[in-house]
Design brief:
heterodimer; A: 111 residues; seven-stranded mixed beta sheet; four-stranded antiparallel beta sheet; 11 strands; 54% strand; globular; B: 112 residues; mainly beta
């Protein structure tokens, strides 16, 4: 089975722009979660989607949003980018409540 | 609130055993995990343990859980240079089954 894929792998944006990141889960996995990784804050949970519905959300401002499609692929969007949004954004997929498998991440740099 | 803590650095000699420690505060933890991250890569799930277990072994990896002290450890036997990476401890709780709360990570350096 192919693993979790994320596109693009690298992205450079400027302050005020918006960005959309994509995640394709492992085939058959219906749950997709997103995490932000920064040197200062570490790994923080953004949100989780299951069957096109957001089931759980972390403590991030409304500029961070997401969605999931009927084929379980997910996108996350960050609007009005700030310098502090520079991070590695990781997506994880799961078929059950025990295990989550992560993709390679999208590294976002905001200038 | 939830909190997971790890020491930041560990150095061992190749061939020795490594023990990475983690403490957590949430008594409603259901599963505890160990993930590995190599430079420029995502997180690789190494192993996990259900909170009602006290030990799990998987090849070179041994996980010990002391639920009373809320202490989790990962032992890597016969540590190799390829084991050099950052190791994250994480938990999920009964209220948020798929929300992982991570520790800050332990940088393991294996010296030849």
């Amino acid at each position: 089975k192919a693993g979790v894929t994320q596109t693009p792998r690298y992205l450079i944006k400027t302050r005020g722009q918006q960005v959309t990141l994509s995640c394709s889960p492992i085939s058959g996995h219906r749950s997709v979660s997103w995490y932000q990784q920064t040197p200062g804050q570490g790994l923080q949970f953004l949100f989780e989607y299951f069957s096109e519905t957001q089931r759980n959300k972390g403590n991030f401002p409304g500029r961070f949003s997401g969605r999931q499609f009927s084929n379980s692929r997910s996108e996350m969007n960050v609007s009005t980018l700030e310098l502090g949004d520079s991070a590695l954004y990781l997506c994880a997929s799961s078929s059950d409540k025990e295990t989550q498998y992560f993709g390679p991440g999208t590294r976002l740099l905001v200038l | 609130g939830e909190d997971v803590e790890q020491s930041l650095f560990l150095s061992v000699r190749e061939g020795d055993s490594s023990v990475i420690n983690c403490t957590y505060t949430d008594s409603s933890s259901t599963y505890l995990y160990w993930y590995k991250q190599e430079p420029g890569a995502g997180l690789q799930l190494l192993t996990y343990i259900f909170s009602n277990m006290d030990m799990k072994q998987d090849q070179r990896l041994t996980v010990l859980l002391n639920k009373k002290d809320k202490h989790l450890s990962l032992r890597i036997a016969d540590t190799q240079t390829g084991d050099s990476a950052i190791y994250f401890c994480a938990e999920t709780t009964s209220g948020s089954a798929r929300q992982l709360t991570f520790g800050s990570g332990t940088q393991l350096t294996v010296l030849p």
